[in-house]
Amino acid sequence: MAYVVERKPLTLAERLYLPQIFAGLRITLKHLFAPNVTLQYPEERPVIPPGYRGVPTLVRDPQGREKCVSCQLCEFVCPPKAIRITPGAVPADQPDQLHIEKAPQAFEIDMLRCIYCGLCQEVCPEEAIFLQNQYSLSGYTRAEMVNDKARLYELGGTLPDQHYKWDKKKAAAEHGNIH
Amino acid sequence: MTALYQYWLNLPLVLQMAIKGLAVIGFMFPFGGACSLIERKVSAWMQGRHGPNRAIPFWIAWVPIIGPLLQRLGVFHLMADGGKMFFKEDPIPGHVNKFYFVLAPIVAMIPALTTVSVVPFGAYVDAAGQLVPLILADVDVGLLALFAVSSLGVYALILAGWASNSKYPFLGGVRASAQLISYELSMTLSILPVFLWVNAPGGSGTLSLFAVVQAQSGPWHAWSGLWFIFTMPVAALIFLISLFAETNRLPFDMAEGEADLVGGFHTEYGSLKWGLFFVAEYSHMLIGSGVFVLLFLGGWNPLPWLPLATFAGWLGLAGNPLVVGALSIVIFLSKVLFFVFLFMWVRWTVPRFRYDQVMKLGWQKLLPLAIGNLIVYALVIAWVQVKN
């Protein structure tokens, strides 16, 4: 329903406008001496809050083994289809990875397509892909902007999780308890 | 030193004047540029930013403390900006009237640099104990000449707006002309009481700005020791507001109006031609502030009731005209710089007026107020002078 807003008549001070200007000048003067809020960017970097969604990366477990089992869920869920995985078997000459079924042969994330939505991290059953702190990336060619597996592990590093999933699998296998 | 002074005195008067003039222009031009840097820094600080603080020549970076300090103050951005403006391409759009397009920035600079000649910027005490102004031309028409020449500045804006042959510059030029002409009236009327007071009957009439400062440099407790801003606050206020309008500063920057007119009258300009408009605008600001300081704030007198000569005497500088002159220039310039700061301070405080508000303020508020002020002060001054 339409209604009329009561407008109080302006007082003399308000009509003169000058007291208002002086009040405004006081505020701006306060800002003149207030500390700056901007950062000197390349030298000073912002503090990245927890849960920040930066460049997606692949991580290793605390013993340095790759966690990704190339289930390709991230590839399927990725809305802009930025992830491309070539699944592969784990080479037999790696005794510490004996109980792992699969590992990606190639893992590429096209950063020109990635929209940083975090769905890949959300969907990953192995907690192998994380959107971490890096927010600034650039390159001279389109090919440079595609992160391959080596680059993804370099960016991701090792995640100190406490699951030790492959150790449990190995222990289970040794007890004849393969599910 | 004395030989040099003798040599200076033996130079032809024309040459002396030309050198003095060039010296003042050589000061005004970079100072106008420096004001643009101050503007950038003050704007940044008021917005919680650092402002320009990157440029530094590598050999100054070697100086330990001063180098980084100058860098943080952004001093070298001034040279970087100036150098950029000198050397970048100077395009003339195809659709403009070339002659007037090129003429406009020149016309903008001429009044900006000419008006300095009648503005005293300091004074010293000569051997005879007389106060001598530091001024290029101490003419009796002083302020009249200044107003006459500085109001030519509006032609530059109109020329630029029309010659650009494009929509927004044209609008900017039209607005500028209307605004400048409107506020000139109240500006001129507001300072008449000052000259009514200065030109007491019996004396020879003068509009010289030096005489105005002399009328404000009385001793302790004398009426003449009070600055005119205390005795004529309304006149000072009207003059200040008109000054904002005349120099096209916010809240009156109708002529530029970045939000609605792109850049106003200088939209089509680039490189040094645009830079000339900028320097002209800052020179107008400097001279306008200088005139305000001379008229209402006692010029080079450090405090009310404390004339320069007394102050110099306290400091033991009485027999030292060079030092007293330098001191007076410093006092005067620091007052002027405060006003330059005030221009920037107000810029980030008050939003731009609507065009109709500008016109209403000028014609319906300031002009009647200035006329009323003039009448009241004419009566009061007549009464005071009859009583004496």
Write structural notes for this entry:
- The complex is a heterodimer of chains A (179) and B (388).
- With 179 residues, chain A is of the alpha+beta class.
- Chain A is built from six helices and five strands.
- Chain A has helices at 12-16, 18-33, 73-77, 119-123, 149-156, 165-174; strands at 56-58, 83-89, 102-110, 129-131, 146-147.
- In chain A, the strands form two sheets. Chain A has a three-stranded antiparallel beta sheet. In chain A, strands 1-4 form a two-stranded antiparallel ribbon.
- The longest helix of chain A has 16 residues, at 18-33.
- The radius of gyration of chain A is 28 Å and the shape is elongated.
- Chain A starts with 11 loop residues before the first helix and ends in a 5-residue tail after the last helix.
- The model of chain A has no long low-confidence stretch (mean pLDDT 85).
- Chain B is mostly helical.
- Chain B is built from 17 helices and two strands.
- Chain B has helices at residues 2-10, 13-46, 58-61, 66-73, 75-87, 98-114, 142-150, 153-163, 167-198, 209-214, 228-231, 233-246, 258-261, 271-296, 308-314, 321-347, 355-387; strands at 122-125, 131-134.
- Chain B has a two-stranded antiparallel ribbon with strand order 1-2.
- The longest helix of chain B has 34 residues, at 13-46.
State mean pLDDT of chain A (0 to 100 scale): 85
Strand content of chain A: 5-15%
- Mean model confidence by pLDDT of chain B: 84
Q: Compute the number of helices of chain B.
A: 17
Portion in beta strands of chain B:
under 5%
The spatial strand order of the largest sheet of chain A comes to: 2-3-5
Instruction: Give start-end ranges of low-pLDDT stretches of chain A.
Output: none
Instruction: Give the overall shape of chain A.
Output: elongated
Biggest interface pair, residues each?
A: A-B, 15 and 14 residues
Helical content class of chain B: 55-70%
Quick one: how many beta strands of chain A? 5
Distance between the termini of chain A: 68 Å
Report the count of strand segments of chain B.
Answer: 2
Q: Helices and strands of chain B, in N-to-C order?
A: HHHHHHEEHHHHHHHHHHH
Element pattern of chain A in H and E: HHEHEEHEEHH
